[in-house]
């Protein structure tokens, strides 16, 4: 009788190694009991299909050579090409990029987009580079990962500290290497290069749409709701503006420059202008400065974490006095914090559902590029809102059926779809 050999897992595959990847593994373990016969395929979800680590050397403006470490991870492609952003940040690690690629697999499946999950990044503080240095770094990185990306293989998009210009450089570099213009290799491009209307605001708009759906479930009047937002970029800023325009009171905003608070409500339009002019919410004259730790304890209807991962953790989760947490960021809540929030009756709309608006409109952009036929912004927003509402309804129904949290329900829906695809495709060779 043969036995399956056991080997020590490398740290990034070890569920006890609680980097971002370890957190993702815990989330998969929580959902495994609900997968039935598909459980035999669950290891598929615990191992990325492909992880590429590249050296990115560039010549700086002063003539010296600098090296940066870059990553592109394709977690799963059973349901379609990889899809996920590229971030430039000094804290980027392989564990983080692996986890983000896996969450993209879950997100795309939860919203039922025909994509797998992927993610990329470079460990760099982009504030230390000039525009020409950023361009050279982006182009070199694109050349290094060019062997595994493509319109039908893996489609990057903007993420932290990357934008439409970054995508234009990536598209141009890939196209030059291919010898033909390939607009569909990235999404989040400038409109002039086949980008989609509505893409910049899509993630924040999706956050607002699912927040409204949650409000309906919980009998919260959005026009009278109180809101606090962490992160005031495209996602948090757009969500805050839409809440403000719906009549809600945005009490506080926090980012890397500090926290501003006004019990009578912040003027979101003026705050957005301040952020555009200064780079952060700190110093805004329309509110008072608040200690960053106090932000989490503010009594509110909606808390929107739209910054980086692990912001709500075992150290501050018990302080949260929000009725609903709608996750605009990727992985902002640790598993321990999830349990605390659940025990305190805080309703959490998870990232893989709440912030899927961006990848949904990226899908629209990809489809438009293939057909060379473009839609109006009104049509895009209508399609986005319909898909987000349908996705929320499906996940909410699954949560009620199994008496689980929305996060677990989203993972049940997504993992089932991914593993069904894996099962019917079979193994080759």
TrEMBL record:
Keywords: NAD, Nucleotide-binding, Oxidoreductase. GO terms for biological process: L-glutamate catabolic process. It comes from the Bacteria. It comes from Bordetella ansorpii. PROSITE patterns: GLFV_DEHYDROGENASE. PANTHER family: GLUTAMATE DEHYDROGENASE (PTHR11606), GLUTAMATE DEHYDROGENASE 1, MITOCHONDRIAL (PTHR11606:SF13). The keyword NAD applies. The lineage of its organism: Bacteria, Pseudomonadati, Pseudomonadota, Betaproteobacteria, Burkholderiales. Belongs to the Glu/Leu/Phe/Val dehydrogenases family. InterPro entries: Aminoacid_DH-like_N_sf (IPR046346), Glu/Leu/Phe/Val/Trp_DH (IPR006095), Glu/Leu/Phe/Val/Trp_DH_C (IPR006096), Glu/Leu/Phe/Val/Trp_DH_dimer (IPR006097), Glu/Leu/Phe/Val_DH_AS (IPR033524), Glu_DH (IPR014362), NAD(P)-bd_dom_sf (IPR036291), NAD_bind_Glu_DH (IPR033922). Residues 196-426 form the Glutamate/phenylalanine/leucine/valine/L-tryptophan dehydrogenase C-terminal domain. The gene is gdhA2. This is Glutamate dehydrogenase. Pfam families: ELFV_dehydrog (PF00208), ELFV_dehydrog_N (PF02812). The active site is at residue 119.
